Amino acid sequence: MLTSSALFHLWNRQVLLRNRHDKLSPLLGCSWVHTGIYMIGCSDRVVYIGQSNQLSQRSIDSLGRVYHRVPDTSLPWSMAFAPCAYDDMDEHESAAIRAYAPEFNTSIPSLDKSLGRMPVIAGTAQIFADQASPSIAFSPECAKRQIEAAATNASPPWRKGNALPRVDLSTAPEQKFDLRDVNTSGRDFFDALSSQRRRAQRRSAPTQRPERIKTYVEHRGVEIHIDEIRSNEVGKRHLFFEWMAKSYGKVIASGTELDKATAANKAIDAAEEHLAQPYRFKINLCDDGSVVTRDGEYLGTWKTDENGHPSFTPDGESEVLFFETWIGMLCQKIADWHEAQDQVQIS
Fold first, then answer.
1. Could you give the angle at the alpha carbon of 243 between the alpha carbons of 238 and 244, nearest 5°?
2. Dihedral through CA 186, CA 187, CA 192, CA 197, nearest 10?
3. 171 burial level (CB within 10 Å; 0-12, 13-18, 19+)
4. Cα(220)–Cα(83) distance, rounded to whole angstroms?
5. Going by DSSP bridges, is the β-strand pair 77-83/222-229 parallel, antiparallel, or unpaired?
6. Which of 92, 145, 288, 317 lies most in the core, judged by the most C-beta atoms within 10 Å?
7. Rounded to whole angstroms, how far apart are CA atoms 38 and 168?
8. How confident is the model at residue 230, as a pLDDT?
9. What is the pLDDT of residues 93-119, one digit of tens each?
10. Whole-angstrom Cα distance, residue 69 to residue 42?
């Protein structure tokens, strides 16, 4: 998450010469928003879609590149975030680029994956403080109109470029492995990391080794990060391994071990313990249509209409209380409503 100082300098580097809207900073500072898809809207259209494991920073960088290419920058601008797992980013970004065909997306990560699942927007915000009104690019009507127009466009902008090149493991900041074949002892995990590290080192300068070798994996939707801390001196043994398990951008467990296999097992155990919890979120929208708090309190029911827009009906009521465009916004409204109900009961 960006600090206020880091956000201030990042914003100023874009030379936008405009102040941020009050609603943008909370979106950029959300603790659960780290990995996923970001979308930039101008007026009534989505003009750029990207992915990152540092959403707050990458989205502002992209805004700086896109902003100066729009003829009329006085139009209203908005930003949208759609958090997702690391392994799902290519699919969600590809599907969204193909569906919306934004004018500044001249390539697509994967044509095969572009027919997959669309990202689910969890939050939106106006970008500039001097906007008279927010961009309506993410409204259901405008989104439907842009998607329909893209479907009939024989030469969308994303066809102008080639698919993104494969990542060079010698320069990639993180290395990914598949946990599906890891046995319970963690040795498969250890062997995979060791082999990958050796290949990366052979590509690097023989007189210098990195201080920190970062490794990223995903276990049943939970992000697992393991960093090997080493000395710069060739031939000197590693110092320790830092591990961390994250779910939807929130750190659920972390620690330090002296060997890689133990660190992997500790991280996997933490992920399994987290996944074993029946209700992991503040507000849980269950598959059976029930809405339940983290403590197991039943609040009511939820459903979606023919357009996929969710609504909430409190327990004992027959009328819908909240109707929203995005699931994340509905959950936030339910949480605020529930907290207000508790305060009324206490008073």
1. 160
2. 100
3. exposed
4. 16
5. unpaired
6. 92
7. 24
8. 73
9. 999 999 999 999 999 998 889 888 999
10. 12
| Averaged pLDDT score across all residues of the chain | 80
Tokens for 52, please give them.
């990152």
Q: Domain range for residue 268?
A: 175-275
Say yes or no: 150 and 233 in one domain.
no
Residues 63, 14: Cα–Cα separation, whole Å: 8
**DSSP 8-state class, residue 261:** H
Q: How far apart are CA 201 and CA 208, in angstroms?
A: 9
**Residue 169 included in any domain:** no
Q: Checking DSSP bridges between strand 36-42 and strand 298-304, what pairing results, if any?
A: unpaired
Whose tokens are 């994996």? That residue is 217
pTM over 0.70: no
The residue with tokens 């127009």 is 149
Higher pLDDT, 179 or 249: 249
In terms of domains, do 16 and 155 share one?
yes
